[in-house]
Amino acid sequence: MKLLKTSLILFVSLLCLNLQAQDKADRPSPPMTAEAVVNGTEVVIDYSSPAVKGRTVWGDLVPYGKSWRTGANEATTLTISDDVEIDGQVLKSGKYSLFTIPGEKEWTFIINSVWDQWGDYNYDASKDVMRFTAKPRELTEAQERMIFEISDAGMVEVKWDKLGVGFKIK
């Protein structure tokens, strides 16, 4: 009887996990991953990818001057296997949340120690590990769905609508 009960609990748990994974894939902003090896360091960005859907993105859907989870759903995460340098600052190996504050002429990137959170609703600036700025650029081709790209040379860029902005990992 005990074996049957344990087996049933295990089966229901696995079923729930499977349904939860399927649920995320069916979201309007599905989960995505960008990854690369930069100078021997594994770099992984996990995020949810919203679509433009005919909306005005910059300054409207994503307001200027306010923190943004840089995606949809859960906060975007950045995981690095070794210490790296970003904008002259050392980032220790680990997993972090990645937020931005978009601006028309300049963006602020924020790396925060609290990675397991929904959006930026509970964002706490006192938990920031580093901040740095970057200049956005106009893309030659519009990007319907937001993506992150990481080159083997360490360039990390988020692209969405007609805009791209990024930073270099060394």
TrEMBL record:
Pfam families recorded: DUF2911
UniProt keywords, alphabetically: Signal
Signal sequence coordinates: 1-21
Domain of life: Bacteria
InterPro entries, sorted: DUF2911
Name of the protein in its database record: DUF2911 domain-containing protein
Source organism: Cryomorpha ignava
